[in-house]
Amino acid sequence: MRWLKPFKLHVKATAITNLRQIFTCQVSSAEQYLSALSQCSIQLPLAQRSAAIWDAVQAAAAEAGGEIPCGSASQDLLAEVANLVEAPTVVRGEFDPAFLELPK
Hints:
37% of the residues lie in helices and 8% in strands. It has helices at residues 33-39, 46-63, 72-84, and strands spanning 16-19, 23-26. A two-stranded antiparallel sheet has the order 1-2. A hairpin with a 3-residue loop joins strand 1 and strand 2. The chain is elongated and about 70 Å long.
């Protein structure tokens, strides 16, 4: 039989929360927590985050002259990305066409 020794944690609770290792927000009540998160570009509700990612991806594709098909593969990827990030940001890149040529 093992005995557990009681211990105390000396943690001071405050109204300040650190977000994304860059932002610090002061939250004076639980009701203000979601609005404080959204002020720091953090979207906690999954549906809202998924919609924001999809809209940004569609806009980036249109800007590049392309489109994203609405198939199950893109929806699976969207679900995975939405569950991995808290502050979605879309970054569009491109390849030098020379890298797209097949060797002969």
